[in-house]
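SEQUENCE-TO-STRUCTURE ENTRY
===========================

Subject: a protein chain together with a token-level encoding of how that chain folds.

Sequence line: the amino acid chain in single-letter code, read from start to end.

Question of interest: how does this chain fold, as expressed in backbone structure tokens?
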Amino acid sequence: MYRGHVGASLIVGGVDLMGPQLYSVHPHGSYSRLPFTALGSGQDAALAVLEDRFQPNMRLEAAQELLVEAITAGILGDLGSGGSVDACVIMGTGAKLLRTLSSPTKPIQSPGRHVVVLGEYDRSSNAEPLQVLSISKAITHPSWNPTTLNNDLTLLKLASPAQYTNRISPVCLASPDEALPAGLKCATTGWGRLSGVGNATPARLQQVALPLVTVNQCRQYWGSRITDSMICAGGAGASSCQGDSGGPLVCQKGNTWVLIGIVSWGTSNCNVRQPAIYTRVSKFSAWIKQVVAYN
């Protein structure tokens, strides 16, 4: 059984007599044949590669490489959805794995293909006052490690400024010396899976309160995988789940909400008795300010 991290599906590609075939394998074990339904907004990019490059009676090696290119295009096209994908193409000599491209290993090559949607609450509604803004640049942390998921952070520069409203407002960034005591109640939001079984996702934005967990407590579950660039929360009856990746973990300090974490990874079944892992924003505040200053 495939056991991915929070927000991941496994895209498996193979070649048979009909040509390249793709399947989406979910962390809980179910699977479905694509065309690229699991890639969300990336499906058009992936299908475009297949339709442009596929030829009848292709050599096996050429078909396998075409699958790699199509899946990669689909993953990069899906970055704006908040999800993440592991891609695996089965070769004659073994599996070729493209790990967790939710945060790309290199900057997005075509940021103009992606948009940021602000002010959304109910994805089934067409009446919400949304702002849909283009992205001019995506900057991934230079020490991002797709194997360990350490330094899991990408900044997006908007092509035009957001307009603040009663539905759209900024959040404060955690400072380098932000005090984060264990047990502090924080909140995370997202449109990810509603439980560790099944694939049901909500139309309306969900919110849940989570207690912070110390690094030592978290390592009791996850061992040395937990670094000082991560923060753990949950394990008390609620959890982030697949589809929430990239979402916020915020804590209220007085009348101010502070962004202290970014949904990164966790158990494949969204175990509500085991803490999930978030990027520790306070460790990156200096880098964030430097990037903003020079971009």
